[in-house]
Amino acid sequence: MTDAAPVLFDRRLLATRLARARTLGPAPFLLDRVAEEMAERLHAVLREFNAIADIWTPGHALPPERFADVVQVGIDPSGNEALNLAPGSLDLAVSALALQFANDLPGVLAQIRRALKPDGLFLAALTGGDTLTELRQSFASAEAEIEGGVSPRVAPAADLRDLGALLQRAGFALPVTDVDRVVVRYDHAFALMQDLRRMGATNVLIERRRAPLRRATLGRMAQIYAERFSDPDGRIRATFEIVWLSGWSPHDSQQQPLKPGSAKASLEDAVKGLGTK
């Protein structure tokens, strides 16, 4: 019996902040970029996808005008991560900017793998550990200077190698991971923070600081941000790291790795051959 995954995220708060973002007027530029990139990646796959599920995306992982009849699987505010997808029912499962909020990512990946038909595809994008690194560094410096300590603002993020291993552990064949870094410029840190509120992307860690942020700390954070991460024109930079994951449900038609010892030529012979040229 394995231990339960730690609960890192306040999912009720996440739902509340996503709802608030819709009332503020959402800032969907990052999700729009990911959705377009996802559509392009799928366009390169020479096959039809009929039964499609979108897992937890705060919007649409695929442009609705290009992909019809997509089942939207919403995130459960209670923290329940059961996806309730029938085994072997999907040709394609996608997710955009959502799986970083999974308390049990290995478990969610395993559920998606079981829901795919043989030779079904999983494609997802989630935020990586370098996302908003400038803002996090500026807040940490300001809090240490003004308040003598640093509060939790970001959950640990798995690196590419770890995520590839998680895909294999979940039973996916031909797993692939890669990273896209997007740099967005703002007039000042407060404009960035307003966009984050309109994206529903503010801190929802269970262990987050509950006391209101001090005005002096907030002001010092903005100063540090401008000092360390601004361009010559005075505008600041904000990095968003997008990690892409893909994998297939195993099928006999897929390319298989060579069995150990099955190569017809040895590495030693190849090296010797290079020396004779």
From TrEMBL:
<dbReference type="InterPro" id="IPR029063">
    <property type="entry name" value="SAM-dependent_MTases_sf"/>
</dbReference>
<keyword id="KW-0808">Transferase</keyword>
<keyword id="KW-0489">Methyltransferase</keyword>
<dbReference type="GO" id="GO:0008757">
    <property type="term" value="F:S-adenosylmethionine-dependent methyltransferase activity"/>
</dbReference>
<dbReference type="GO" id="GO:0032259">
    <property type="term" value="P:methylation"/>
</dbReference>
<dbReference type="InterPro" id="IPR013216">
    <property type="entry name" value="Methyltransf_11"/>
</dbReference>
<dbReference type="Pfam" id="PF08241">
    <property type="entry name" value="Methyltransf_11"/>
</dbReference>
<feature type="region of interest" description="Disordered">
    <location>
        <begin position="251"/>
        <end position="277"/>
    </location>
</feature>
<protein>
    <submittedName>
        <fullName>Methyltransferase domain-containing protein</fullName>
    </submittedName>
</protein>
<feature type="domain" description="Methyltransferase type 11">
    <location>
        <begin position="81"/>
        <end position="123"/>
    </location>
</feature>
<dbReference type="InterPro" id="IPR050602">
    <property type="entry name" value="Malonyl-ACP_OMT"/>
</dbReference>
